[in-house]
Amino acid sequence: MLVNRALFELCRLSDSLEGDDTFHQRRVCIISYELAREIGLDRGALSLLVRSALLHDIGLLTDSDKTETFRQIAYEEFSSLNRHAVLGGKVARFLNLHLDITNAINLHHTPHEENSSVLGNILFLADNVEIAYRSLTNPFAYDDLIGYLEQKKRIFDPSVFDALKRVAKRECFWFSLLEEHVDDSVRRIIDELPDDRADEKFETALIYLLSFMSDNVAPFYDRYTLFVKNIAVNMGYKLGLDSKLLHRASLLSHVGNLKIPYTLFSLPSLDEENYNIIKSHTFEGFGILNRMGFDREAELVLLHHENNLEEGYPCRVKPEGESAVLALATVVAAIMQDRPYRDAKSDDSIKKGLENFKELGIFDGELIDAVVDIDLNKVRETEDEYYNATKRLFT
Ligand SMILES: [Fe+2]
Ligand SMILES: [Fe+2]
Ligand SMILES: [Fe+2]
Protein backbone atom coordinates (compact mmCIF):
# COMPACT_ATOMS: atom_id res chain seq x y z
CA MET A 1 0.00 0.00 0.00
CA LEU A 2 1.26 3.47 -0.92
CA VAL A 3 0.43 6.25 1.54
CA ASN A 4 -0.58 8.98 -0.95
CA ARG A 5 -2.73 6.56 -2.97
CA ALA A 6 -4.54 5.44 0.17
CA LEU A 7 -5.04 9.00 1.40
CA PHE A 8 -6.38 10.03 -2.00
CA GLU A 9 -8.99 7.29 -1.80
CA LEU A 10 -9.88 8.18 1.79
CA CYS A 11 -10.23 11.77 0.60
CA ARG A 12 -12.51 10.77 -2.30
CA LEU A 13 -14.62 8.82 0.18
CA SER A 14 -14.96 11.62 2.71
CA ASP A 15 -15.64 14.15 -0.10
CA SER A 16 -18.45 12.00 -1.45
CA LEU A 17 -20.25 10.47 1.51
CA GLU A 18 -23.65 9.05 0.62
CA GLY A 19 -22.91 9.49 -3.05
CA ASP A 20 -23.02 13.29 -2.92
CA ASP A 21 -19.62 14.54 -4.05
CA THR A 22 -18.41 18.01 -3.02
CA PHE A 23 -14.89 17.60 -4.54
CA HIS A 24 -13.81 20.02 -1.80
CA GLN A 25 -10.70 18.41 -0.32
CA ARG A 26 -9.41 17.24 -3.72
CA ARG A 27 -9.78 20.77 -5.14
CA VAL A 28 -8.05 22.20 -2.05
CA CYS A 29 -5.26 19.72 -2.76
CA ILE A 30 -4.86 20.96 -6.36
CA ILE A 31 -5.02 24.64 -5.37
CA SER A 32 -2.56 24.18 -2.47
CA TYR A 33 -0.13 22.31 -4.68
CA GLU A 34 -0.14 25.00 -7.39
CA LEU A 35 0.30 27.78 -4.80
CA ALA A 36 3.16 25.96 -3.12
CA ARG A 37 4.96 25.30 -6.39
CA GLU A 38 4.59 28.94 -7.32
CA ILE A 39 6.15 29.94 -4.00
CA GLY A 40 8.95 27.47 -4.61
CA LEU A 41 8.46 24.90 -1.81
CA ASP A 42 10.69 21.84 -2.15
CA ARG A 43 9.35 18.37 -2.94
CA GLY A 44 9.44 17.25 0.68
CA ALA A 45 7.24 20.15 1.75
CA LEU A 46 4.97 19.65 -1.28
CA SER A 47 4.42 16.06 -0.25
CA LEU A 48 3.49 17.06 3.31
CA LEU A 49 1.15 19.73 1.95
CA VAL A 50 -0.63 17.33 -0.40
CA ARG A 51 -1.23 14.88 2.45
CA SER A 52 -2.50 17.70 4.68
CA ALA A 53 -4.87 18.93 1.98
CA LEU A 54 -6.29 15.48 1.24
CA LEU A 55 -7.10 14.99 4.92
CA HIS A 56 -7.80 18.53 6.07
CA ASP A 57 -11.57 18.18 6.68
CA ILE A 58 -11.57 14.58 7.93
CA GLY A 59 -12.41 15.99 11.37
CA LEU A 60 -15.93 16.72 10.09
CA LEU A 61 -16.70 13.03 10.47
CA THR A 62 -17.55 13.32 14.12
CA ASP A 63 -20.06 11.11 15.83
CA SER A 64 -21.30 13.71 18.25
CA ASP A 65 -24.87 12.59 17.63
CA LYS A 66 -25.43 9.23 16.03
CA THR A 67 -29.00 9.99 15.10
CA GLU A 68 -27.64 12.19 12.33
CA THR A 69 -25.54 11.40 9.35
CA PHE A 70 -21.98 12.58 8.89
CA ARG A 71 -23.08 15.04 6.29
CA GLN A 72 -25.68 16.72 8.50
CA ILE A 73 -23.20 16.91 11.33
CA ALA A 74 -20.63 18.33 8.94
CA TYR A 75 -22.75 21.36 8.20
CA GLU A 76 -23.50 21.98 11.85
CA GLU A 77 -19.88 21.71 12.78
CA PHE A 78 -19.06 24.64 10.54
CA SER A 79 -20.36 26.91 13.28
CA SER A 80 -17.33 25.93 15.35
CA LEU A 81 -14.70 25.68 12.66
CA ASN A 82 -11.71 25.03 14.79
CA ARG A 83 -13.17 21.93 16.37
CA HIS A 84 -12.99 19.91 13.16
CA ALA A 85 -9.53 21.33 12.43
CA VAL A 86 -8.22 20.06 15.76
CA LEU A 87 -9.99 16.71 15.32
CA GLY A 88 -8.48 16.41 11.83
CA GLY A 89 -5.02 17.03 13.27
CA LYS A 90 -5.64 14.22 15.75
CA VAL A 91 -6.65 11.87 12.93
CA ALA A 92 -3.39 12.69 11.10
CA ARG A 93 -1.43 11.77 14.24
CA PHE A 94 -3.48 8.61 14.65
CA LEU A 95 -2.44 7.66 11.10
CA ASN A 96 1.17 8.15 12.21
CA LEU A 97 1.73 10.98 9.72
CA HIS A 98 4.32 13.76 10.06
CA LEU A 99 3.78 16.37 12.79
CA ASP A 100 3.84 19.17 10.19
CA ILE A 101 0.68 17.65 8.71
CA THR A 102 -1.05 17.76 12.09
CA ASN A 103 0.00 21.41 12.47
CA ALA A 104 -1.17 22.39 8.99
CA ILE A 105 -4.57 20.76 9.51
CA ASN A 106 -4.93 22.31 12.98
CA LEU A 107 -4.35 25.75 11.47
CA HIS A 108 -6.31 25.49 8.24
CA HIS A 109 -8.96 27.96 9.47
CA THR A 110 -6.53 30.29 11.24
CA PRO A 111 -5.85 33.68 9.60
CA HIS A 112 -2.29 34.66 8.72
CA GLU A 113 -1.67 36.85 11.79
CA GLU A 114 -1.99 33.89 14.15
CA ASN A 115 -0.94 31.18 11.74
CA SER A 116 2.63 30.03 12.33
CA SER A 117 2.60 27.21 9.77
CA VAL A 118 3.72 27.78 6.15
CA LEU A 119 1.64 24.81 5.05
CA GLY A 120 -1.27 25.97 7.24
CA ASN A 121 -1.28 29.38 5.52
CA ILE A 122 -1.36 27.80 2.08
CA LEU A 123 -4.20 25.48 3.12
CA PHE A 124 -6.10 28.40 4.62
CA LEU A 125 -6.07 30.36 1.36
CA ALA A 126 -6.71 27.27 -0.79
CA ASP A 127 -9.73 26.40 1.37
CA ASN A 128 -11.12 29.91 0.87
CA VAL A 129 -10.48 29.78 -2.88
CA GLU A 130 -12.32 26.47 -3.17
CA ILE A 131 -15.35 27.65 -1.22
CA ALA A 132 -15.53 30.85 -3.28
CA TYR A 133 -15.04 28.81 -6.49
CA ARG A 134 -18.01 26.61 -5.65
CA SER A 135 -20.25 29.64 -5.25
CA LEU A 136 -19.48 30.84 -8.80
CA THR A 137 -22.26 30.32 -11.29
CA ASN A 138 -19.71 30.50 -14.09
CA PRO A 139 -16.63 28.40 -13.26
CA PHE A 140 -14.51 30.67 -15.48
CA ALA A 141 -15.37 33.94 -13.68
CA TYR A 142 -11.89 34.07 -12.15
CA ASP A 143 -11.81 37.86 -11.90
CA ASP A 144 -14.92 37.83 -9.71
CA LEU A 145 -13.36 35.23 -7.47
CA ILE A 146 -10.01 37.02 -7.11
CA GLY A 147 -11.86 40.32 -6.62
CA TYR A 148 -13.94 38.79 -3.84
CA LEU A 149 -10.87 37.40 -2.07
CA GLU A 150 -9.01 40.74 -2.50
CA GLN A 151 -11.56 42.30 -0.16
CA LYS A 152 -10.46 40.09 2.70
CA LYS A 153 -6.86 39.85 1.62
CA ARG A 154 -5.40 40.93 5.00
CA ILE A 155 -6.29 37.55 6.54
CA PHE A 156 -4.05 35.74 4.03
CA ASP A 157 -0.28 35.41 3.90
CA PRO A 158 0.71 38.13 1.36
CA SER A 159 3.25 35.94 -0.45
CA VAL A 160 0.66 33.15 -0.84
CA PHE A 161 -1.93 35.62 -2.08
CA ASP A 162 0.51 37.00 -4.65
CA ALA A 163 1.19 33.45 -5.79
CA LEU A 164 -2.56 32.96 -6.27
CA LYS A 165 -2.76 36.00 -8.53
CA ARG A 166 -0.02 34.57 -10.75
CA VAL A 167 -1.49 31.05 -10.77
CA ALA A 168 -4.95 32.45 -11.58
CA LYS A 169 -3.71 33.75 -14.94
CA ARG A 170 -3.20 30.17 -16.18
CA GLU A 171 -6.14 28.53 -17.88
CA CYS A 172 -4.91 25.05 -16.99
CA PHE A 173 -5.28 25.84 -13.29
CA TRP A 174 -9.00 26.48 -13.72
CA PHE A 175 -9.50 23.55 -16.08
CA SER A 176 -7.97 21.26 -13.45
CA LEU A 177 -10.69 22.28 -10.96
CA LEU A 178 -13.61 21.23 -13.17
CA GLU A 179 -15.45 18.21 -11.73
CA GLU A 180 -14.54 15.98 -14.66
CA HIS A 181 -10.81 16.75 -14.28
CA VAL A 182 -10.39 16.85 -10.49
CA ASP A 183 -9.43 13.21 -9.93
CA ASP A 184 -7.01 13.11 -12.87
CA SER A 185 -5.41 16.32 -11.64
CA VAL A 186 -4.88 14.94 -8.12
CA ARG A 187 -3.51 11.69 -9.56
CA ARG A 188 -1.04 13.66 -11.67
CA ILE A 189 0.14 15.51 -8.56
CA ILE A 190 0.53 12.28 -6.60
CA ASP A 191 2.45 10.67 -9.46
CA GLU A 192 4.88 13.58 -9.54
CA LEU A 193 5.69 13.32 -5.83
CA PRO A 194 7.67 10.70 -3.94
CA ASP A 195 5.41 8.24 -2.16
CA ASP A 196 6.25 5.67 0.47
CA ARG A 197 5.01 2.26 1.47
CA ALA A 198 2.52 2.38 4.33
CA ASP A 199 3.82 1.03 7.63
CA GLU A 200 1.77 -1.33 9.79
CA LYS A 201 0.69 1.53 12.07
CA PHE A 202 -0.75 3.52 9.16
CA GLU A 203 -2.59 0.52 7.74
CA THR A 204 -4.06 -0.49 11.08
CA ALA A 205 -5.17 3.04 11.90
CA LEU A 206 -6.74 3.39 8.45
CA ILE A 207 -8.61 0.10 8.87
CA TYR A 208 -10.04 1.17 12.23
CA LEU A 209 -10.93 4.59 10.91
CA LEU A 210 -12.89 3.06 8.02
CA SER A 211 -14.51 0.54 10.34
CA PHE A 212 -15.62 3.29 12.70
CA MET A 213 -16.92 5.43 9.82
CA SER A 214 -18.94 2.57 8.37
CA ASP A 215 -20.39 1.65 11.78
CA ASN A 216 -21.74 5.19 11.98
CA VAL A 217 -23.83 5.31 8.81
CA ALA A 218 -26.92 4.58 10.91
CA PRO A 219 -27.48 4.22 14.68
CA PHE A 220 -28.41 0.53 14.46
CA TYR A 221 -25.06 -0.29 12.83
CA ASP A 222 -23.29 0.63 16.08
CA ARG A 223 -20.20 -1.64 16.50
CA TYR A 224 -21.42 -3.89 13.66
CA THR A 225 -18.03 -4.48 12.03
CA LEU A 226 -16.52 -5.04 15.47
CA PHE A 227 -19.02 -7.88 16.02
CA VAL A 228 -18.17 -9.28 12.57
CA LYS A 229 -14.49 -9.20 13.49
CA ASN A 230 -15.02 -10.91 16.87
CA ILE A 231 -16.96 -13.73 15.18
CA ALA A 232 -14.78 -14.14 12.07
CA VAL A 233 -11.47 -14.16 13.96
CA ASN A 234 -12.78 -16.76 16.41
CA MET A 235 -13.92 -18.94 13.49
CA GLY A 236 -10.62 -18.41 11.70
CA TYR A 237 -8.63 -19.74 14.65
CA LYS A 238 -10.79 -22.85 14.89
CA LEU A 239 -10.61 -23.55 11.17
CA GLY A 240 -6.88 -22.86 10.86
CA LEU A 241 -7.46 -19.98 8.44
CA ASP A 242 -5.71 -16.60 8.15
CA SER A 243 -7.08 -14.80 11.22
CA LYS A 244 -5.15 -11.61 10.53
CA LEU A 245 -6.73 -11.32 7.09
CA LEU A 246 -10.14 -12.02 8.63
CA HIS A 247 -9.54 -9.38 11.30
CA ARG A 248 -8.76 -6.74 8.70
CA ALA A 249 -11.40 -7.73 6.14
CA SER A 250 -14.13 -7.84 8.82
CA LEU A 251 -13.43 -4.30 9.94
CA LEU A 252 -13.39 -3.18 6.30
CA SER A 253 -16.40 -5.24 5.28
CA HIS A 254 -18.95 -2.41 5.16
CA VAL A 255 -16.92 0.51 3.91
CA GLY A 256 -19.13 0.43 0.79
CA ASN A 257 -22.09 1.52 2.93
CA LEU A 258 -20.52 4.96 3.08
CA LYS A 259 -21.52 5.39 -0.57
CA ILE A 260 -25.19 4.48 -0.03
CA PRO A 261 -27.75 7.27 0.61
CA TYR A 262 -28.32 6.97 4.37
CA THR A 263 -32.11 7.30 4.09
CA LEU A 264 -32.25 3.84 2.49
CA PHE A 265 -30.92 2.17 5.63
CA SER A 266 -33.89 3.31 7.69
CA LEU A 267 -36.63 2.15 5.32
CA PRO A 268 -38.86 -0.58 6.81
CA SER A 269 -38.95 -2.35 3.45
CA LEU A 270 -37.14 -2.00 0.16
CA ASP A 271 -38.43 -2.07 -3.41
CA GLU A 272 -36.24 -3.73 -6.04
CA GLU A 273 -34.53 -0.53 -7.13
CA ASN A 274 -33.54 0.47 -3.60
CA TYR A 275 -32.51 -3.07 -2.73
CA ASN A 276 -30.15 -3.04 -5.71
CA ILE A 277 -28.62 0.20 -4.45
CA ILE A 278 -28.10 -1.40 -1.01
CA LYS A 279 -26.60 -4.49 -2.65
CA SER A 280 -24.02 -2.29 -4.38
CA HIS A 281 -22.23 -1.78 -1.03
CA THR A 282 -20.33 -4.99 -1.80
CA PHE A 283 -19.06 -3.70 -5.12
CA GLU A 284 -18.42 -0.18 -3.82
CA GLY A 285 -16.41 -1.62 -0.93
CA PHE A 286 -14.41 -3.77 -3.34
CA GLY A 287 -13.51 -0.74 -5.47
CA ILE A 288 -12.58 1.50 -2.55
CA LEU A 289 -10.37 -1.15 -0.93
CA ASN A 290 -8.72 -2.12 -4.20
CA ARG A 291 -7.82 1.47 -5.00
CA MET A 292 -6.46 1.93 -1.47
CA GLY A 293 -4.20 -1.09 -1.82
CA PHE A 294 -6.11 -3.53 0.43
CA ASP A 295 -6.09 -6.11 -2.38
CA ARG A 296 -6.70 -9.33 -0.44
CA GLU A 297 -9.28 -7.75 1.85
CA ALA A 298 -11.12 -6.37 -1.20
CA GLU A 299 -11.66 -9.88 -2.59
CA LEU A 300 -13.25 -11.05 0.66
CA VAL A 301 -15.41 -7.95 0.97
CA LEU A 302 -16.74 -8.39 -2.57
CA LEU A 303 -18.03 -11.86 -1.63
CA HIS A 304 -19.42 -11.21 1.85
CA HIS A 305 -23.05 -11.72 0.75
CA GLU A 306 -22.47 -14.95 -1.18
CA ASN A 307 -23.38 -18.49 -0.10
CA ASN A 308 -23.05 -22.14 -1.09
CA LEU A 309 -26.29 -22.14 -3.06
CA GLU A 310 -24.91 -19.41 -5.33
CA GLU A 311 -27.99 -17.37 -4.50
CA GLY A 312 -26.22 -14.50 -2.78
CA TYR A 313 -24.95 -11.30 -4.40
CA PRO A 314 -23.25 -9.65 -6.28
CA CYS A 315 -21.35 -12.48 -8.06
CA ARG A 316 -23.55 -15.51 -7.22
CA VAL A 317 -20.56 -17.73 -6.54
CA LYS A 318 -19.75 -20.13 -3.70
CA PRO A 319 -17.36 -18.41 -1.29
CA GLU A 320 -14.34 -20.43 -0.16
CA GLY A 321 -11.98 -20.30 2.83
CA GLU A 322 -11.73 -16.89 4.48
CA SER A 323 -14.39 -15.48 2.13
CA ALA A 324 -16.92 -18.04 3.39
CA VAL A 325 -16.04 -17.24 7.02
CA LEU A 326 -16.57 -13.53 6.44
CA ALA A 327 -19.86 -14.21 4.65
CA LEU A 328 -21.23 -16.26 7.57
CA ALA A 329 -19.86 -13.89 10.22
CA THR A 330 -21.60 -10.89 8.61
CA VAL A 331 -24.93 -12.78 8.67
CA VAL A 332 -24.59 -13.73 12.35
CA ALA A 333 -23.47 -10.23 13.39
CA ALA A 334 -26.38 -8.69 11.47
CA ILE A 335 -29.07 -10.83 13.12
CA MET A 336 -27.63 -9.98 16.54
CA GLN A 337 -28.66 -6.38 15.91
CA ASP A 338 -31.97 -4.60 15.36
CA ARG A 339 -32.72 -3.42 11.85
CA PRO A 340 -35.62 -1.13 10.86
CA TYR A 341 -37.40 -4.06 9.18
CA ARG A 342 -36.91 -6.62 12.02
CA ASP A 343 -35.77 -6.94 15.63
CA ALA A 344 -32.55 -8.59 16.77
CA LYS A 345 -32.88 -12.36 17.23
CA SER A 346 -32.28 -14.03 20.57
CA ASP A 347 -29.10 -16.07 20.90
CA ASP A 348 -31.15 -19.28 21.01
CA SER A 349 -33.00 -18.52 17.83
CA ILE A 350 -29.71 -17.56 16.12
CA LYS A 351 -28.32 -21.00 16.99
CA LYS A 352 -31.48 -22.69 15.67
CA GLY A 353 -31.26 -20.64 12.50
CA LEU A 354 -27.66 -21.74 12.03
CA GLU A 355 -28.66 -25.41 12.26
CA ASN A 356 -31.22 -24.66 9.61
CA PHE A 357 -28.50 -23.14 7.40
CA LYS A 358 -26.62 -26.40 7.78
CA GLU A 359 -29.57 -28.54 6.77
CA LEU A 360 -30.32 -26.37 3.75
CA GLY A 361 -26.64 -26.40 2.75
CA ILE A 362 -26.41 -22.59 2.71
CA PHE A 363 -23.00 -22.78 4.40
CA ASP A 364 -20.61 -25.73 4.97
CA GLY A 365 -21.30 -27.77 8.12
CA GLU A 366 -17.72 -27.21 9.26
CA LEU A 367 -18.30 -23.45 9.20
CA ILE A 368 -21.58 -23.71 11.08
CA ASP A 369 -19.88 -25.87 13.74
CA ALA A 370 -17.18 -23.22 14.13
CA VAL A 371 -19.69 -20.46 14.76
CA VAL A 372 -22.46 -22.23 16.66
CA ASP A 373 -20.59 -22.59 19.95
CA ILE A 374 -19.30 -19.01 20.03
CA ASP A 375 -20.59 -17.17 23.10
CA LEU A 376 -22.46 -14.29 21.48
CA ASN A 377 -22.41 -12.31 24.70
CA LYS A 378 -18.66 -12.32 24.48
CA VAL A 379 -18.95 -11.08 20.91
CA ARG A 380 -21.00 -8.14 22.22
CA GLU A 381 -18.82 -7.42 25.21
CA THR A 382 -15.27 -7.98 23.98
CA GLU A 383 -13.59 -4.59 23.93
CA ASP A 384 -11.10 -3.59 21.27
CA GLU A 385 -8.60 -0.96 22.43
CA TYR A 386 -7.87 0.27 18.92
CA TYR A 387 -11.57 0.65 18.16
CA ASN A 388 -12.07 2.60 21.39
CA ALA A 389 -9.09 4.81 20.57
CA THR A 390 -10.64 5.57 17.17
CA LYS A 391 -13.91 6.49 18.83
CA ARG A 392 -12.13 8.80 21.27
CA LEU A 393 -10.63 10.71 18.35
CA PHE A 394 -14.06 12.06 17.50
CA THR A 395 -15.46 12.68 20.96
FE1 LIG B 1 -12.18 22.91 7.30
FE1 LIG C 1 -12.00 22.64 3.90
FE1 LIG D 1 -23.04 -6.36 3.82
Task: Provide a descriptive summary of the structure in words.
By secondary structure, this protein is mainly α. The relative contact order is 0.11. The chain has helices at residues 3-15, 24-39, 43-55, 70-77, 81-94, 99-106, 118-135, 142-151, 158-167, 171-176, 179-192, 200-214, 224-239, 243-252, 272-279, 281-292, 295-302, 321-335, 347-360, 365-372, 376-381, 385-393. Residues 63-78 have low confidence and may be disordered. The protein has 22 helices and no strands. Helix 2 crosses helix 11 (179-192), helix 7 (118-135) crosses helix 8 and helix 13 packs across helix 20 (365-372). One fe (ii) ion is lined by residues 56-57, 84-85, 108-109, 127. One fe (ii) ion is lined by residues 254, 281, 304-305, 330.
Brief synopsis:
Helix content is 64%, strand content 0%. With 395 residues, the protein is mainly alpha-helical.
Radius of gyration: 23 Å
Q: Measure the end-to-end span.
A: 29 Å
Q: H/E series, N to C?
A: HHHHHHHHHHHHHHHHHHHHHH
Helix content: 55-70%
> Structural class from helices and strands?
mainly alpha
Give the overall average pLDDT: 92
Question: Strand portion, in percent?
Answer: under 5%
Q: Which ligands are bound?
A: fe (ii) ion
For the sheet with most strands, the description reads:
none
Shape: elongated
Low-confidence runs: 63-78
- Name the CATH homologous superfamily of the largest domain: Hypothetical protein af1432
Please name the CATH architecture of the largest domain. Orthogonal Bundle
Number of domains as seen in the coordinates: 2
